[in-house]
Amino acid sequence: MNRALKILLPLAVLGVGAGVWLTAPSKVDAARFEALTGNADAGQTIFTAAGCASCHHASGSDNKLLLSGGQAFASAFGTFYAPNISPSDAGIGGWSVVDLANAVKQGVGKAGEHLYPAFPYTAYTKMQDQQVADLHAYMQTLPPSDTASQPHDVGFPFNIRRSLGGWKLLFFSDDYVMTDLPEGVTERGRDLVETLGHCAECHTPRNAIGGLDTSRWMAGAPNPSGRGEIPGLTPTQLDWSATDVAYYLESGFTPDYDSVGGHMAEVVENFSKLTPEDREAVAAYVKALPASD
Length: 293
Hints:
This is Mono/diheme cytochrome c family protein. Residues 38-143, 184-290 form the Cytochrome c domain. Keywords: Heme, Iron, Metal-binding. InterPro entries: Cyt_c-like_dom (IPR009056), Cyt_c-like_dom_sf (IPR036909), Cytochrome_c-type_DH (IPR051459). The protein is mainly alpha-helical and 293 residues long. The protein folds into two domains: 26-150 and 159-171, Cytochrome Bc1 Complex, Chain D, domain 2; 187-287, Cytochrome Bc1 Complex, Chain D, domain 2, CATH 1.10.760. It contains twelve helices and four strands, in the order αααββααααααββααα.
């Protein structure tokens, strides 16, 4: 028994050490951002396309740029509350460009903690460094709020932040899903759909522990709130033309003269502020999706 313990104990220590190392938060290389100067005008477009205000604006406020947070997002793992991301001490007022880059590209908070993927950094990770710098410059121009962020209501074992390091090993990648762009699909369209617009976060089904099932990319998914389904965007589910898609993103009206509802109304509000070329680029990507089961 003593001999077995002498063998197993060091192995256990090594195993724990390897687990701690593998699940440690990974940060961006700060040197990449030293020479960058953010452009607030460009950052406003990124902010709009990324839908930052849709989740983080103050509940019940008409000011969509007051990013005091508080909106609740129910899921199978608990309820997540959008934090304050206004430029104040209660928000991200003390954050540098590198701090913001760690959050949006690595899912790591200013204190070095793993962030829950209810925040779609799994999509934002593909943002270019200059885009992050521009976004940071714009967000510093917004009104501050001293409202404290509400803690998430997440039970065991999902409240163990370190476990997210293991989740990231399995599901966190900065690779594009549509790697080879079909004719007519631009990098801008892919950037808007897969990165900034993070469309797959709602329109792609997930596995039992919340990882996106990229084999069923954009094929529709259960609503995380437990109410209803989020429709698929592949040709199997959506027979709209590219013109229909672009017009819907501008006006909120479907080809059947129905109107947008739910959280998608926020998405349309954001995309209606982009250029017609941007909406056409998104439509081209959607129409290039492969059929699904």
